[in-house]
Amino acid sequence: MKKLNIASIPGDGVGHEVVPSGEQVLKTIADIHGGLAFEFTSFPWSCNYYLEHGSMMPENGLDQLKPFDAIFLGAVGDLNLVPDHISLWGLLIKIRREFEQSINMRPAKLLKGVTSPLANPKDFDLLVVRENSEGEYSSIGGKIHQGEDEVAIQNAVFSRKATERAMRFAFELAGKRRQHVTSATKSNGIVYSMPFWDDVFKEVSTDYPSIQTDSQHIDALAAFFVTQPERFDVIVASNLFGDILTDVGAAIMGSIGIAPAANINVNGKYPSMFEPVHGSAPDIVGKGLANPIGQIWTAKMMLDHFGEIELGAKLLDVIEETTTAGIMTADIGGKHSTEEVTNEIIHRLKSL
Ligand code: NAD
Ligand code: IPM
Ligand code: MN
Fold this sequence. Notes:
Isopropylmalate Dehydrogenase; 10-stranded mixed beta sheet; 2 domains; two-stranded antiparallel ribbon; binds nicotinamide-adenine-dinucleotide; alpha/beta; binds 3-isopropylmalic acid; tartrate dehydrogenase activity; 352 residues; 12 strands; globular
């Protein structure tokens, strides 16, 4: 019996609505498999936790998480309770960094049964590899002067190690896919980090002669995501560019509510973390409107991570059967609730 211990952090907002969906689906999958079991331990770390304890997680929070096989997270952030930079840096970004989850994998493809907002989309299937530990998300900077002369300075950090790591990861993935990597750059406007990014991309690409490459400025690339998403296979992007690009990727699929993601600890020292692309969706919280597919597809990425490729493929098939049958939440044009969509997926898994 392969038993997987998962730390579950619903976090804030709709995290509490979609994480239980993901957990139930994973438990159902494990029952079908026979030799697999998931045990979930839930942690209440969130903005409400902050109000009670003055921090987003206990001081030894990371020690508590470390022994788990993976972390399954919903979303973090409730602006009514805690400023975002405090809640996110105190939990989500803290885990990504301290657990060296330096790669964020975010696929986007047309799901059967889901209408893309693109008028006549060709079949696309792309994967953004987002550098997840540094870049534009740096804590180096500050403010100088006051009053009308006040200036905020925010530095970006691009280390050779992290840049190269993200790029090699992208090339390795492309080798198992359609043999193409696109680099998201902006070396026409950003004079230190992006020319460096381009140099490292060129260097790394020489180690993968069979993989085709191209480089696109991030602004044009974002537009191509809308006009020709089918031309992309793997895209490697810095932290901020990857963040923005993957919301565009989610949008062209039909909704941010269906987009999955995986924060991967490449060196195997710490657990990886699985959390969808979307946030806590304060505008729909408590209404049964949250699409559980982002979290459930994220669960599929967790199955893949544990080597359960066939089960992962089955789960994605069942998600698509469900959307094809019209059992969907309102964000993708349906009229069903979070619970109804989840139950349908579970029901279909059980009858496999
Ligand atoms: P958001 O993703 O929460 O919401 C953007 C829009 O998408 C909203 O209209 C929302 O209703 C919709 N949406 C999101 N998830 C959905 C789902 N599952 N089903 C249907 N519709 C869904 O982004 P935001 O409004 O910019 O952020 C809200 C809060 O979440 C902020 O505090 C932000 O910092 C945080 N956030 C957290 C994460 C994370 O924890 N990974 C990611 C993004 C934003
Ligand atoms: C994401 C989110 C986070 C990010 C925020 C909430 C800090 O947008 O996971 O995409 O920018 O990484
Ligand atoms: Mn984002």
